[in-house]
Design a protein that fits this description.
Shape: globular
Strand content: under 5%
Number of domains: 1
Distance between the termini: 50 Å
Number of strands: 0
Number of helices: 6
Length: 95
């Protein structure tokens, strides 16, 4: 199996899990779909993407839309997951 085919299978797995509600937080997407492959497909620098994965509030809307397009999912699904993760991170910070 070629590397591109394996990446496509990982993207498809991430899509299925997202659409089934099996991905609990934003970072989990990237444990399934390789960040390097997403960085290449979206033209986001790999190091910048990793920083944005850790803190989804750093993403631009267009970048989230591009990731959603790569994963072939509704962008609002990705927006919601990113927003939920941001809110969760904010509530976990000490006052």
């Amino acid at each position: 199996m070629a590397n591109g085919e394996l990446t496509n299978l990982k993207f498809e797995k991430a899509k299925q899990m997202l659409e089934s509600g099996l991905i609990p937080d934003f970072q989990t997407i990237f444990s399934i779909a390789p960040p390097t492959s997403i960085a290449t497909a979206t033209k986001i620098h790999n190091l910048r993407l990793k920083a944005k994965i850790e803190d989804p509030s750093l993403f631009k809307m267009r970048e989230l839309m591009d990731i959603a397009a790569v994963l072939n999912i509704d962008d609002t699904l990705l927006f919601k997951l990113a927003l939920d993760t941001i809110k969760s991170n904010d509530s976990a910070e000490p006052a």
